[in-house]
Automatic annotation (TrEMBL):
Hydrolase as UniProt keyword: yes
Species this protein is from: Streptosporangium jomthongense
Top-rank EC class of the record's enzyme: hydrolase
UniProt protein name: PIG-L deacetylase family protein
Alphabetical list of SUPFAM superfamilies matching this protein: LmbE-like
Keywords per UniProt: Hydrolase, Zinc
Alphabetical list of InterPro entries matching this protein: GlcNAc_PI_deacetylase-related, LmbE-like_dom_sf
EC code(s) of this entry: 3.5.1.-
Zinc is among the record's keywords: yes
Amino acid sequence: MFFHAHPDDEALLTAGTMAMLAAQGHRVILVVATSGELGQADLGPGEALGAARMAELYRSAAALGCARVVNLGYGDSGLAPDGGVAEGRAGNAFIDADVEEAAGRLAEILTEEGADLLTTYDPAGGYGHPDHVQVNRVGARAAEIAGTPIVLEATVNRDPLLKGLRLISRFFPQLDVRSFERAYSPGSVITHRVGVRRFARQKRASMAAHASQATGADTRTLGVMLKVPLPLYRLIFGTEWYVRRDLPQGARLRHPFEAPPKG
């Protein structure tokens, strides 16, 4: 089960892993906390945008081979210019949800599906979005309640990310590389490096499904990624990274279900 905050987060962080596991015969479930109705898009924030983004999510899930999509139905908390929670958010914003209550709802799905694995985000929420931070809290507690044996925090290896973005910025100088300098996780803490180059087309199709998040007056990160030629795309986006907190220090694995080393 892959737990994300908004539609399109799965495309950016875990799409290759999801496509790989589905191709291997695993039942892959995609859960989002919100419909992303406060995201940036030409359509404008609100209910219509939320519906459009959920339709995009279903197209993305189909491209990845997901068996089920679930929206927990919380409101998008939004993101203020200073990185905090947006003003005017809905009364049921995910960031305001009681962690125990939200975790209980997620745990019900984990138990119903008999999930072997749950992905969340790192404690910082990747780039710090409040809803991403809440995914970490809610997901960790839900796994405890349901007894889910493997919890992986989806992240990005900040080291090659910065190298790749600096390369891309030569062609797209408007890309703000500095905003990623403290995002996600350094390579030293990552436990899983999952090679997904074989599934680059599915991952790219997942990204392309989220058209509302790839267009607009401003240059969007997703839109820039989709303009990268496929051979370079495979190189830059051909690995996905996770942190599993219960592994021995220094463990490095290449598959979500790989057994940790003994001792």
